[in-house]
Amino acid sequence: MRQFTLALGLTLACASPALAEKTLIESPDAPKAIGPYSQAIQSGNLVFVSGSLPFDPAGKIDYSKQDITAQTRRTIDNIALTLAAAKLTLDDVVSATVYVTDVDDFPAVNAVYASYFHAPYPARAFVQVAKLLRGVKVEISVIAARK
């Protein structure tokens, strides 16, 4: 029994996500990370894109002053730029988490979201939060899968 327990422990340790490969994905075209995190990380066939905000990559437009529709478009455009650095597109997204500061913005966010994603749509969570960085109204994180 002890050998079985040891063998099982070694098997689980070798399969542990802590030991999974991590490859940095970074797009020079997308907004730079503003903290100690990566734009995206690839592990196996999955690409994990950090929460994207409606920041102008060129720094010319303050999207926090724009409406939720413009902010959502900019956010998804930023995600697409990051995915492109991994040679992926929005069609490769399998899961999305949408954070908004006002759940009443659901119809507007949903309309923009539907214009970017196609059936079969990614699995999704839609969550209201108290506040987002720099006063923006929306943040979206995604997971994409290589075919």
Explain what you see.
With 147 residues, the protein is of the alpha+beta class. The protein has a single domain (21-145), classed as 60s Ribosomal Protein L30, Chain: A, CATH 3.30.1330.40. 29% of the residues lie in helices and 24% in strands. The chain has a 6-stranded mixed beta sheet, covered by helices on one side. Helix 2 (68-85) runs parallel beside helix 3. The longest helix is centred in the middle third of the chain and has 18 residues, at 68-85. It starts with a helix and ends with a strand. The model has no long low-confidence stretch (mean pLDDT 91).
**Percent of residues in β-strands:** 15-25%
State the secondary-structure class: alpha+beta
Full CATH superfamily name: RutC-like
The helix/strand series, from N terminus to C terminus, equals: HEEEHEHEE
Shape: globular
- Strand order in the largest sheet: 1-2-3-6-4-5
Helix fraction bin: 25-40%
End-to-end CA span: 41 Å
Number of E-state strands: 6
Do you know the CATH topology? 60s Ribosomal Protein L30, Chain: A
Number of domains: 1
